[in-house]
Backbone:
């Protein structure tokens, strides 16, 4: 496809090769970041597949760096690719919204309207009476899909805007009350990842 003269040129040595190393490193670190995130979400089936492609791309990148150890631009491409891959992996995770979260809402005001609104959305709110530093409180517990947090946050702002709440990731939950998933789950996540798929 390219002549031997091109492969031996300064353009290839100082620009094309570092760019290729950068792209390989972006790809393998993105996959590595997603692999760790999938593992933390207990999505074990996909982890080996992601790991396979991750290590294959990494081998290509590291072999090229070792072949061009006299080229500092390759080192720069390696480092920049690593940093970019982490950022992209995190952005993809945020976009997909995989996994479950436990939400604790604590308020010293009436929360009946909030709980009613959440239960109408099949979000399974559990209310517990408690006592805080300033008197009686209500604690509302929810296990929600990460994709539902924006909806829950809207209800909190609407009904109990001064409520204190905390969020924790949940590795696994069984049974419970969750909104019915409409349609194919694979297509659902594809639409979240690629906005153009919504058209």
Residues:
């Amino acid at each position: 496809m390219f002549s031997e003269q091109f492969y031996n040129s300064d353009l290839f040595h100082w620009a094309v090769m570092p760019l290729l190393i950068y792209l390989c490193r972006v790809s393998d670190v993105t996959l590595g970041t997603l692999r760790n995130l999938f593992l933390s979400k207990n999505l074990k089936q996909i982890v080996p597949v992601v790991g396979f492609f991750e290590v294959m791309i990494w081998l290509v990148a590291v072999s090229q760096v070792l072949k061009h150890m006299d080229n500092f631009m390759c080192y720069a491409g390696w480092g920049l690719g690593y940093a970019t891959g982490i950022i992209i992996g995190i952005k993809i995770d945020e976009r997909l919204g995989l996994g479950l979260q436990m939400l604790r809402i604590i308020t010293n005001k009436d929360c009946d309207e909030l709980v009613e609104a959440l239960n109408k959305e099949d979000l399974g709110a559990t209310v517990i009476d408690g006592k805080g530093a300033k008197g009686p409180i209500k604690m509302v517990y929810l296990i929600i899909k990460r994709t539902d947090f924006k909806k829950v946050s809207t209800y909190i702002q609407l009904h109990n805007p001064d409520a204190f709440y905390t969020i924790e990731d949940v590795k696994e939950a069984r049974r419970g009350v969750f909104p019915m998933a409409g349609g194919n789950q694979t297509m659902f996540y594809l639409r979240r990842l690629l906005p153009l798929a919504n058209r």
About this structure: Residues 10-40 form the longest helix (31 residues). The first strand starts at residue 100 and ends at 107.
